Amino acid sequence: MPDEHIPGKLIGSIVAVGSLAFIGILTETVMTVLFPQLMREFNVDTATVQWITTVYLLVVAATMPLSSYLNRRFKHRTLFLAAVALAVLGSLIMIVGHAFPVILIARVIQGMGSGVATPLMINIILEQSPKSKVGRLMGVGSLVITVAPAIGPTVGGAVSSVLPWRAIFVIVIPIILLVSLPVGLKCVEQHRPTEEARLNSLQFVSIVLALCGLVMFLNQAGVAVSAAVSGGSDTVSAVFAVVSLIVGLGSLLFFGWSSKRSFSPLIRLGWLRDPMVLLHLIAYMLLPIVGIGFGYVITNVAQLSLGTSAFLSGALVLPGALIGAFFAPVGGMLYDRFGPVRPILGAFFAAICGPILLLVFSMRLTPVTLAGFYFIFGLGYSLGFSNIMTNALRNIAPQFMPDGNAVFNTCLQFGGAAGTALFSTILSVAQAGSGEEGSDAFRHATAVGGSWTFAMMIAIVAVAVCCLISAFRIGAKRK
Questions:
Q1: How far apart are CA 73 and CA 195, in angstroms?
Q2: Which 3 state secondary structure label does DSSP give 294?
């Protein structure tokens, strides 16, 4: 019904839980800009400092599969309070921690909080939204997923230029305690009964090993390739990458096999037999490779090829992020009005124009054109991305929505981690043997690496669009 009312408490719930998820994802990308400072403070090298981001992504990816079990077993308010406690505790440790291992422990705790909050927000939207408003509210929820990683570099560059890096977490705690917590206590409600769900510990261990193995494979494979091209020793990283891949794929296959035979699986996967839903899932995993990886590519190309400052390079991402903040709910409204096909495909046909233009002008880019072409991508991406998950989950039985939510959010995290690993490897390969950073040869090599990266982005978006076209054709035949 077009005149269905959105309850005020539902809006409050989305604000409360969404702000927690937003802060978690924001601090994830803020830290990447702070790596040079952290390397000096803790006396660690580049390979070591990367663990601040890698361990966070591993924990988030490992927590996401639990969301289906947690949603069935515990009340929304209980999960919300757990996410608040984890976010505050992790931030406090970040403020007072003065040893690198302590900082890693803080990132583990923060990753657990974000891994609980993000699926909880989506589950609340799916369970409590009026049917005619699901698209626009999922668009609002998408702001958390798409905008936070985009503005992270800008926030990190701005704060670190005037304040110590720990000030970021000093600012975060009052927001959580004075905004998220009171609003959540007042508004978060339970609309479905909990179940006596059981945690299948063997399946949980297997999916954690699978996700950790695959993320570590991407991380170490990138390190190995970069070292090989630059003439360094790559044996240890290469062996670790191969072992991680074997462990990851083996654990994933075991998880799928065990889930089919389990009376109470950690995640019910029967809905993935529907090819239309599976094609949506593939697209939803591929597109964040570009969407989240863009933040890394733009900041590095701007600094290492165009010679901009860290603050300006982060600011170049901001226009595309702001347009995402405005148009994600608009994309949801278009979905509610016109259905899935035109809003989704139209959005990504527009989005692919961004990397195409970046490729065409890759050797003649300026900060303005770099930001402008990313703006085009950001507009299309924000209009269409959240609608993919919305449309997929609408095509599965309601009782399996928490399972679908868990799988889609896990694939989102994996896609984001894959994007950073993939694009950093491409840039490193292009830069290898080109001289010192700041030299003309190094800047030219970075520009070449940027062109390779933009070509890869075009291919990834094109494959995702083909998956969506195939899914819509299957849907049309059924009708």
A1: 5
A2: helix
Residue range 341-345: mean pLDDT, rounded: 93
DSSP 177: I
Cα separation, 189 vs 200, whole angstroms:
27
How many angstroms separate the CA atoms of 404 and 29, rounded?
A: 26
What does pTM read for this prediction? 0.79
Half-sphere exposure of residue 44: CA atoms within 13 angstroms, side-chain side: 19
- Per 3-state DSSP, what percentage of the chain is helix, strand, and coil (rounded to 5)? 85, 0, 15
Separation between Cα atoms, residue 228 and residue 238, nearest integer Å: 10
* Beta-carbon contacts of residue 164 (< 8 Å; ≥ 6 apart): none
Q: Are 409 and 67 a contacting pair, CB within 8 Å? A: yes
pLDDT at 150: 63
Determine the longest span between alpha carbons in the chain, in angstroms.
65
What span, in angstroms and rounded, lies between the C-alpha atoms of 266 and 69?
6
CA–CA gap between residue 25 and residue 181 (Å, rounded): 18
Interacting residues of 417 by C-beta distance below 8 A, sequence separation 6+? 54, 57, 61, 215, 218, 219
Q: Over the stretch 218-272, which tens digit does the pLDDT of each residue have?
A: 778 877 887 777 676 678 888 988 999 999 999 999 988 988 887 778 888 888 8
DSSP letter for 18, please: H
Alpha-carbon span 123 to 17, nearest angstrom: 11
**Is the C-alpha dihedral spanning 11, 17, 19, 22 positive or negative?**
negative
367-394 helix and 275-304 helix, angle to the nearest 10 degrees: 160
**What distance in Å separates the CA atoms of residue 282 and residue 388, rounded to the nearest whole number?**
10
In tens, the pLDDT along 366-423 reads 999 999 999 999 899 988 888 998 899 888 888 888 888 888 888 887 887 778 778 8
Q: Residues 148, 25: contact at Cβ < 8 Å? A: yes
CA distances, 85 to each of 10, 111, 199 (Å): 22, 12, 22
